Amino acid sequence: MDKYDYVIIGSGASGSAIAEKISSDYNILILEKGDYLPLNQAHKGYFRASSCKDFEEHGKIEILSGNAVGGTTLLAIGNGVRTQETELKKFGIDIEKELDEVENDFEVSTIPENMLGERTKLFIEKSKELGYDPKIMPKMIDFKKCKKCGKCNMGCSFQAKKTSLYYIEKSLSNGAELKTNFEVSKITKNSGNYTVQGIEKGNSKTINAKNVILSAGALETPKILNNSGIMTPKKLFVDIFVTIGGRCDQSFKDEMNMAAYIPFNDFLISPYYSERIIKILDERKIESRRDNIIGIMIKIKDDSFGHVDKAYIEKCCTGKDVQKISNGVAIASRILKKSGVDTIVSTEAAGAHPGGTAPLGTTVDNQFKTKLGFYVCDASVLPESPGEPPILTLMALGKKLGENILNST
Question: With 80 as the cut, is the pLDDT of residue 56 above it?
Fold first, then answer.
């Protein structure tokens, strides 16, 4: 007899939410490829997902990701926007109730005015002068603890940022088990039950379970699916972004990144500090410092045009992607000029939110099931690029699957 009712592969946004939802009713095991890192050491989980010996031949889009309990929620900057609701409804998946639930769990709210930094206020002011309608970003942050250091993408030294660790810890208190440093390679079905194969501390291991939920993230999930005999389409998107910026005559204190934003049909723009801007200016012999740099991120809904191979990730900009980036850069440049920036430089294109590698309607049905009967629920099932931070939606999808499981018994 199998010890576990459910093995959940992955502890990120979706996997943690599923675990929290069903851990009181079922014996579950959560498998995580990375370590259990405290939030103030989350940066140790960073890795270049796009790294390979032939990187230059595969699109040159840098994709950063992270391995740790809690997944990339530890490295995200706490944005809590609703996205993909309309797209998911086309597949018969309504997550409005689940979004409400996650927002309540994480006390998602827009940033108080007294927490907005001077760069953000300048962005808002100059955007309005140009006729745009900037919005304040909702955040998964305890503003009473936040010190506005601007380093959310490294974790959080002040325990202000809320992450999937909240759901993981609740699951463990409900009796769930967690196994770290376990890299899953394959799922097989035997007589109605499942065997999860993987590597733990350099040794091959197998775990048996009645059910399996694959939530390893959009870069690992397709590898596991392909090894398990479920071939995935070449539909990778990454929410491609660039940051443009430059030096101005003002001096700024550190502040929260992406505290405001302007949404457009195919992209958003948002104030964002990038250390890379200083390095690029230095290469041009323009002296600058952390306190006199203004940056604006342009994040687009990129085409689903890329794929995850065993040895590399292939992702490049299509002509449409380049046009979207150009449109965003033109608007952001006007705001920077209005803000006193003379020389504007741009970072290289990078990917922030990989997804689409096991999409709804192709790899899984609207119950998140594959043809082998096990579930997939993470960013890989999203039907298209959101062009916005998807963590809130991914947690809501996890809640939805968890609710489906509870209601099916």
Answer: no
Read off the pTM.
Answer: 0.95
C-alpha–C-alpha distance, residues 399 and 405, integer Å: 10
Q: Which are the contacts of 126, defined by CB distance < 8 A and separation ≥ 6?
A: 335, 338, 339
CA distance 130 to 110: 23
**Per-residue pLDDT at 13:** 98
Query: Which pLDDT band, with edges at 50, 70 and 90, does 160 fall under?
Result: very high
Give residue 64's pLDDT. 79
Contact 136, 110 (CB under 8 A): yes
Two tokens, residue 29? 């095991």
150: left (phi over 0), alpha (psi -120 to 50) or beta: left
SS3 content of the chain, % helix, strand, coil (to 5): 30, 25, 45
Q: C-alpha dihedral over 340, 333, 306, 384, to 10 degrees?
A: 100
CA dihedral 367, 369, 373, 374 (to 10 degrees): -110
Is the pLDDT assigned to residue 59 strictly greater than 70? Answer: no
**Contact residues for 387 (Cβ-Cβ < 8 A; gap 6+):** 83, 239, 266, 267, 268, 299, 300, 301, 302
| The two structure tokens encoding residue 194 | 């499942």
